[in-house]
Amino acid sequence: MLILLGSLLSWLAAVSSDHALVYVINIRNEIGNGLRVYIDNGIKQASEAEADAIIFDVHTPGGAVGAARDIIDAIQRTELPTIAYVNTEAISAGAMISLSCDQIVMRYGGAIGDSAPVSIQGEELNEKAVSYIRGKIRATAERGGRNPDIAAAMVDKRLYLVRLTDGEIITLREEEYLERKDLGEEMDIIAAGGPEGELLTLTTEEALEYNLADEVADSVEDLLALYQIVEVDGERKALTAEGIAQKQMEFGDDNVKAIKSLKDATQEAVLVTVADRFVFFVTSPLISGLLLTLGGLGLFVEIRTPGFGIPGIAGLICLGLFFWGHRLLNISADYAAIAFILGVALLLIELFVIPGFGIAGIAGIGLMLGSVFFVFRSAYKFETAVFTLSSAIILAFALAIALSYLLPRTRAWNHLVLSAAMDSGSGFHSAPREDFQVYVGKTGVALTPLRPAGTVRVDDTRLDVVTAGDFIVRDTPVKIINVEGSKIFVEAIDET
User: Fold this and answer.
1) Potential cystine with 314: which of 46, 141, 210, 298 (Cβ 3.0-4.6 Å)?
2) Confidence class of residue 431 from pLDDT cuts 50, 70 and 90?
3) Per the CATH hierarchy, to which homologous superfamily does domain 433-492 belong?
4) Alpha-carbon distance 52 to 82, whole Å?
């Protein structure tokens, strides 16, 4: 043992004295899509700078599983050594991200675990969702050489996590646990399972005991003092002295090459830029839903008032922020924005050009809702997308009804819209509504194409009409078949 220790110390003394470069990426507060963009940028910066390692300083209660999944994939793709520093809690999605790193170092008094997926309302998700996350966290733990059963117990409270007499730690379903217990097998329960089970959350000491964490440190500086950068069988890794000794025994001294120590390494903090903060803000489910509500409301008020003013501008700004913010998440929001604009155009055509409400209006609403849902579905899990979009629609509809009632009673509205009534005895009018009934059954000729609205001549009188069926070309004989209020309906006369 003394010979091995002396050999190791001599080996470490040969490590390059050049200062190492490490990038520190902070994972703070709730995990969301904005954080994913920040971490992607941080990993890219570290790779371009040829950093020796990346430290993820983790202190988070969790967040969106979809964002955590993408962050895990980004961490596992990088070729740089990664170290998670749990400072002081890595809960839920934070635990999953920590497990994706090559090394886990925890601060005294830290906690890691409790990774069950929940809905935006805080309710537990179904077995399908739990099964997916359980499989994901097991694979992540296994890839890092950690016990996958311990990781699974953080996700599925129905699992019993037990230690067998030989020291092995495994998970058992309730029926398996009861069967073994009935057979008299001795097991120490680490986390109770079953319908009323508990999710596994480990303290720093417990994480070290179960080999989930590799080391303990009170600061990033203390953490760096523990690690060396070494090349193991051609691959760079960040390892402690104990880890180096294990690799030497596994691969042989010739295949474990000293590179440099991380002690006194230069730390490059990945700063949260103004653009990052903007993405964090506008892409949160709450703010995204609010932007949609205000955008739709602004367009509604603009349609109800003459000209184009502040409500329309505000609505377009809100919708622009919604689509632009999600575009920065690397979501294909450009096509969604084009589809939304096309939907608005079709809806306006239906309201102001084509009488009634038909295919154009339905298609317009479908394009608007579909484009927004595409963005939400790409950014969040299905339940969050449905809840946020539904809430935005309901809120916008309720506010539109309220404004329809309140706006006409305000002084500002009276400056925009003429409220004085004009009876038939004053001003210009084409003809009383009741006079149109006299044209029913009469024939005439189309002066313009009727698509479906247009103009016809009946008894030397020009009338604005709408076809009751197919479009009618110019100069076609027509017959007036019905009058509803101010709308006159015609059909082509079959001359055969």
Assistant:
1) 298
2) very low
3) Nucleic acid-binding proteins (2.40.50.140)
4) 9
